[in-house]
């Protein structure tokens, strides 16, 4: 009997190290364990469930909006969250919230994906657009200011757009698909850029509790590679191209480095996040100012730009409308060299809330 | 949100990298010619002012002087002080030297790193950083000696200086002839730095074991071979290096150990620690003073870039000795090349990284232990006050990782009691930080126990002290109410 079993084992294959029944189909990026597909789904989903429970991210009866870009992270997030909501009875009312920045050839395609998700997952969708909210599309903004600092505008506007959309939907919470790679990149970027205040906040799994709408990141400990793997095996429908306006974001440096690091030591990504959580930063650097913007009347937990008490989006918008696109960007003096350096670096820092669509790379 | 406005007072805003000169005592003009100077020699005549030293305006700047030689690449290749451009190339040689020495002297005086009664051991690797450290300390000592000779009452003694080189030939393969030649060159360098005379110690890594050298060498080899992870092995070697320094310092009556660690090295260390999950203890390693060791360790070159130290060596023809290729591997190598890439993209990146990490809260042992002389205290104490670094007596004492001596985060330490002084595998693990647990300690239990038996005594004792520390502290709290002296015997 045993001899037959041994003979029947496929020559190159070995058994899944978790269930020991099915053949191992993949190597898990986080731990390099060789496991079968079913066990991969199980550990992937249950780890996220563990994060949600351990960090008490949700309460029963809450209305939760999922920031949906149509990319792999938000698609997998919508899929897994609705699955776990069912399986473990979170009692949540889930919605899809999408932001239309008005980028032709990119956003209009990804929005189609989200509309399909709405049908596939049965989650109501709301789309908010820059055009409606601000009177400007990203295409128009880029035409005016070029390819430097455009990420600053987009990032600031998107943050507010999500808040507005969440308010319209009357939700209690916003979830985004920021994954472990994103957070590790952000920790590194903040170290490289000298932003100690952001460094102390960027590893929090929930942010903005003192602002208009709290946001949380259930994928905080989930590897990007595993998200891609999950989407691939489950054949989930998502849109995978980089934003056409972001070829030179400074974040690219950190991203490349982390990819190389992951190859040498996969757990380093989680170690970076742990370091970020453990940094000894005095609490006085933690609190940003918050209050009501005098121009739009909107509560913002963002730092106000003195001397006017306006939120950042209003400052930028004012600049666009007055034909002063540099308003709120860079220093008032300085040669062109400094401006371009500022732009490159500003993109990195301000695209913390923005997600880059990953490519399907194995 | 960062608004990048020059006048913005909001707490969340940060000053632009290049613009924040608050800490720099030698303010630089805006780096308007930054990119130009990295591309072409300044003597092109584009801006005739920049052919002269920007500080004294009298002598030719180094870039102009070196424009035709191959050294220009090194000098104009970016990197500088707090500013963005190659400040070094815009100074003349004399101003550059005095600027660099000024940084060293400022670090020493404002942090009370060296006092007249000290006996300082300089850790010398042969490389440019430690060579400059040695040179500067020698100059400082000579000045002190001159003052001493000139003074009438001879009240302030002159601090002593010794030099130590760690011989790692048993763990890193170096051709024997090359090695002994290198050591002789070093000996010559040290003997030329007199008067005052400095003793030169060659210490082998295996000397950390008290047993005879052959046995020590084998134990060391076994210890290193027991570490599977490449990065872990490299890091373990660094920890052993410090143990060797501590031992030679203790044995020969030194009171301080001086390392030539520069800004660039610290920038790499910041990223290394972050990437290995050592974010909690990072602040301990990057200050001017590290007094958690028996002999406090000082880092007076903390504000100097590697680029500047290289220029210093070529400027004054300071002899450097290359003992081995200093070839990093694994994660440390990746980070070194990453920082190099970043520095090329923006020459002030290393400084910014160190400045960011400098905002982390240091530990209570990151200040000089109270000296006997009250006068010395005041200046440095005033500086340290802002961090309120006194150990908090209402909390149990800090415990440290057995292997890397990094402070352990309280929530990471599982309290454990030694049963009959015998360490179980779990006890061994618990006495180490999570990073060492992963990259240095063997995973297998029997291998772990074997590994533990190979550790030098200092590491074993450190762990035991940490374990007993909490017990002892608890006992001290209630000591006055205990009726019996012996409870369970210590």
From TrEMBL, chain A:
InterPro entries found in the cross-reference section: CTU1-like_ATP-bd, Ncs6/Tuc1/Ctu1, Rossmann-like_a/b/a_fold, TilS/TtcA_N, tRNA_thiolation_TtcA_Ctu1
Q: Pathway listed for it?
A: tRNA modification; 5-methoxycarbonylmethyl-2-thiouridine-tRNA biosynthesis
Q: Which SUPFAM superfamilies match?
A: Adenine nucleotide alpha hydrolases-like
Q: Which domain of life is it from?
A: Eukaryota
Please give the function described in this protein's UniProt entry.
Plays a central role in 2-thiolation of mcm(5)S(2)U at tRNA wobble positions of tRNA(Lys), tRNA(Glu) and tRNA(Gln). Directly binds tRNAs and probably acts by catalyzing adenylation of tRNAs, an intermediate required for 2-thiolation. It is unclear whether it acts as a sulfurtransferase that transfers sulfur from thiocarboxylated URM1 onto the uridine of tRNAs at wobble position.
Family that this chain belongs to: Belongs to the TtcA family. CTU1/NCS6/ATPBD3 subfamily.
Xref: PANTHER family: ATPASES OF THE PP SUPERFAMILY-RELATED (PTHR11807), CYTOPLASMIC TRNA 2-THIOLATION PROTEIN 1 (PTHR11807:SF12)
Q: Please report the name of this protein according to its UniProt entry.
A: Cytoplasmic tRNA 2-thiolation protein 1
From TrEMBL, chain B:
Tell me the InterPro entries matching this sequence.
Answer: CTU2 (IPR019407), Rossmann-like_a/b/a_fold (IPR014729)
* Pfam families the UniProt entry points to: CTU2
From the UniProt entry, list the residue stretches annotated as the region Disordered: 19-47
The answer to whether keyword Lipid metabolism applies is: no
Give the transmembrane region(s): none
Please indicate if the UniProt record lists Cytoplasm as a keyword: yes
Q: GO CC terms for this protein?
A: cytosol
From the Swiss-Prot or TrEMBL record, what is one GO molecular function term?
nucleotidyltransferase activity
Q: Which UniProt keywords apply?
A: Cytoplasm, tRNA processing
Q: What is its main location?
A: cytoplasm
Pathway, per record: tRNA modification; 5-methoxycarbonylmethyl-2-thiouridine-tRNA biosynthesis
What's an example GO BP annotation here? tRNA wobble position uridine thiolation
Q: Where is the sequence biased in composition, kind Polar residues?
A: 35-47
**What subcellular locations does the record give?**
Cytoplasm
Q: What does this protein do?
A: Plays a central role in 2-thiolation of mcm(5)S(2)U at tRNA wobble positions of tRNA(Lys), tRNA(Glu) and tRNA(Gln). May act by forming a heterodimer with NCS6/CTU1 that ligates sulfur from thiocarboxylated URM1 onto the uridine of tRNAs at wobble position.
Write out the similarity annotation: Belongs to the CTU2/NCS2 family.
Q: What is this protein called?
A: Cytoplasmic tRNA 2-thiolation protein 2
Task: State the species of origin.
Answer: Coffea arabica
- Taxonomic lineage per UniProt? Eukaryota, Viridiplantae, Streptophyta, Embryophyta, Tracheophyta
